[in-house]
Design brief:
442 residues, alpha/beta, Urease, subunit C, domain 1, TIM Barrel, 2 domains, 8-stranded mixed beta sheet, 15 strands, 36% helix, disordered N terminus
């Protein structure tokens, strides 16, 4: 079959919303960012079958299988992204909303999500996604969170770890409120059970003990401000969203490098979720401005109204000061860069769908903020691709466009190294070998 005929087949197949898993798909004569390095190669072909990349090389050397779907044009191909602090709605919010959120992630090139507040229904979603029964990214999920209300004694914490291990959750989610005694019991039992724990850091635990316990990820850069503020951090624990905002005047910025080096030595990853804090505190991000951001119009009205009210309440409180807020956000950027430069692992995560963070769309803003922090576009993209493969223990299977890797891909009309954020330029997404044109996911 000639290339022209195969290209016609591509147009016909694009009329169908879902491609059959296992179909051979060829991305022919495209620009390619493999993430092996920071170079985009022209005139490349990638052949996918049964969810795996079978061949990558020059278009002139490609042998296109008979009957394959061929996608060719002035496109850029790269690995799919991961949202490593995602939220999947509860089944109580309705099957339709859950389905739409998963599609929103995928529509923006998010081919893997790490759900950070799980429930039993998410285990079923994980399996259905893995089997191609629903339109969804690959799912990893925590169980219900460990916090001051759910884990009130060492014995209870140990039982929760055991129960979540038996249920099949991928990791344990921590929220604030754990006593040091309860945290220690949880961490010990998690080690016994081979379970990762990740998320927040409780006031009584602190950054140093968390690093010593080798928490899997610290999310939101939690308790770094306390570490750098010293004695001033011994105050009543503020609103959960503050993440040390109130300590900004007391931070010793000379401790940023020490914090980063200690994190590296502990082997602990960070998911900064800087966009969440920018949305809450940055006075330049007015409610009116954020209402115009891509994806916000696709969220339920009651959800968006809740976001608006939350922002207005925070910024009208006596504790909020616009100048201090900007300084706080600048410290977070400096810390993000220091962690990166020290070699402490960073993972892409925006905490969607939280405050003005629509699923998928907000991950692109997080990439933009990583670049603003001082990472190159290539280094920022690594946090959602190569680094994810390393974190998951799948460095030979996840995060690159290479033979034997998972076929999780994004097709763009722009060069991703020159166009962050590039969400509006996504032409299509492949997850585990199943191809969707962008219109199929709208």
């Amino acid at each position: 079959m000639k290339i022209a005929q195969l290209f016609l087949l591509t147009i016909i197949c694009s009329l169908f919303a879902v491609q059959v898993h296992g179909q051979t798909v060829v991305f022919h004569d495209v620009y390619l960012l493999t993430m092996e390095n920071n170079r985009v190669a022209a005139n490349q072909t990638v052949i996918v079958n049964n969810g795996v990349i079978n061949w990558v090389g020059p278009a002139s050397e490609a042998e296109i299988p008979r009957g394959a779907e061929v996608i060719s044009g002035d496109y850029y191909l790269m690995p799919g992204l991961a949202e490593m602090h995602a939220h999947i709605p509860s089944e109580r919010q309705g099957e339709e909303y859950v389905s739409q959120v998963l599609k929103m992630y995928l529509s923006q090139g998010i081919t893997t999500i790490r759900g950070m507040l799980g429930e039993p229904s998410h285990l079923e979603l994980r399996e259905r996604a893995a089997n191609g029964e629903i339109i969804s990214p690959r799912i990893f999920t925590s169980g219900p969170s460990f916090n001051g209300n759910s884990a009130t004694s060492p014995g209870q914490a140990r039982r929760m770890v055991q129960d979540q291990k038996a249920a099949g959750y991928d990791l344990l989610k921590l929220h604030p409120g754990l006593s040091r005694e309860v945290f220690d019991a949880m961490a010990d039992e998690a080690k016994n059970q081979g379970m990762e724990f990740a998320g927040h850091i409780s006031y009584d635990v602190g950054l140093e003990r968390t690093l010593e316990a080798e928490q899997g990820t610290i999310d939101h850069l939690d308790r770094y401000m306390e570490f750098m503020a010293g004695e001033a951090a011994n105050r009543p624990d503020p609103n959960i969203i503050y993440f040390g905002y109130d300590l900004t005047p007391h931070v010793d910025e000379t401790l940023i490098d020490e914090a980063a080096n200690r994190t590296l030595e502990a082997g602990v990853w960070n998911v900064p979720t800087n966009t969440l804090l920018e949305n809450v505190f940055n006075p330049e991000n007015s409610v009116e401005k954020m209402m115009e951001w891509p994806g916000v119009d696709r969220m339920p009205e009651n959800v968006v109204n809740g976001w608006q009210n939350y922002i207005r309440n925070i910024r009208s409180s006596d504790a909020y000061d616009a100048e201090q807020a900007l300084e706080f956000l600048e410290i977070r950027k400096k810390l993000t860069l220091a962690l990166h430069e020290a070699g402490a692992g960073l993972l892409l995560g925006a905490d969607a769908p939280q405050i003005f963070n629509p699923p998928g769309y907000s991950a692109h803003r997080e990439l933009e903020l990583l670049v603003e922090s001082g990472l190159s576009p290539y280094e920022a993209l690594k946090t959602g691709t190569v680094n994810v493969g390393d974190y998951l223990g799948e460095p030979e299977r996840t995060g690159k466009v290479a033979t034997r890797y998972r076929a999780d891909l994004i097709l763009l009309s722009v060069n991703p190294l020159e166009s962050i954020p590039f969400g509006e330029s996504i032409e299509g997404v492949m997850v585990d070998g199943t191809w969707y044109w962008s219109g199929d996911l709208d």
